[in-house]
Automatic annotation (TrEMBL):
Protein name (Swiss-Prot/TrEMBL): Uncharacterized protein
The keyword Transmembrane helix is annotated on this UniProt entry: yes
Signal peptide: none
GO CC term, one of those recorded: plasma membrane
Keyword annotations of the record: Membrane, Transmembrane, Transmembrane helix
Domain Concentrative nucleoside transporter C-terminal: residue ranges: 155-365
Amino acid sequence: MPLQNGESRLARMQSFLGIIIITAALVFTSKNRKFINWRTVTDAVNSGAIAITMFPTIIFFAAFIQTMYYLGGVQWLLRHVGWFFYKLLDTSGAEAVVASASPFIGQSENTLLVKDYLEHMTKSELHACMTAGFATISGSVFQAYVALGVDAKNLITACIMSIPCSLALSKIRYPETEEPITRGPVILSKRKKEANILHALGNGAATGMQLSLLILATIIGMVSLIYAINFFLTWLGQFVGISNLSLELILGYLFYPLTWLLGVPGRDVLAVSKLLGLKLIGNEFIAYSQLTGATGNPPVQDHLSPRGLMIAQFSLAGFANTGSVAQVIAAIGSLAPSRKEDVSRLALSACLTGATATMLTAAIVSMIV
């Protein structure tokens, strides 16, 4: 992207500085720094009206993905993409499969592909699998974000780039100290196959409807909660002399330094940092809705520069939020009950690492575009 008026090549260096600081922070907080596999890290970083529009698109994509499962298309793609990342990044087969699948089927379903190995996974593998889910969005909700007005190219690029970034940062945060049993060829767990293509289509549509209702309920609940908190903060602000005190304003200042490190132009930093905060405590749908004005408020994107808007769209493209932590614990815990304690201990770390991976992707794009 050409430099705009008022920008300089320092904007590129700003993003580069962000990449260095983000990576250094993960190294500093790593569980076992001496066991970090730097091949995985360096190779990955270098690879460089809501319901009306949302329901049909989510249902269609969920049905489409389920149909492609029935026809074997998704399995074929995962074997080849998983093999690629296994060879490129020196990860285990299970990690490669789950990370590759995350942009297609999401964080709750990706571990189904390796459910036979969950009981025997190392803690580092579990951490990496969860991180990959937190760092990306799924195909079933992709079109819903596009319907909100988010650039499809940015979403696709963010998901693809976040696969190696999530593996890299996870291996910094929680290096492998054991020997995974899936360190070898990528093998997918067998799943129950539908009777025919219509059966697959129906199952996918049902899944899409459940997902749509869950998202809508979450949006209603979170928006209501945010409004309630803002009402209290505004009332409190009147007593302490702070006008327009709100949750978004508090989060905006908390995330300000990190947002600046992503390469966001100075005049856009506060607005984008507010969105990052909303995404972490709410979800990415809330943040994207605020960005595009789908919630009824003035669109934030109308006041952003093209560069600021691009970075915002990239940095929000992930499932890392507080609600997803409980969702992942429940999903993996139901598949591997004996590992629920480990998953519970690792989930928050994986969520923060996944959020960091998504932001690292945004910083890389900001530096090179």
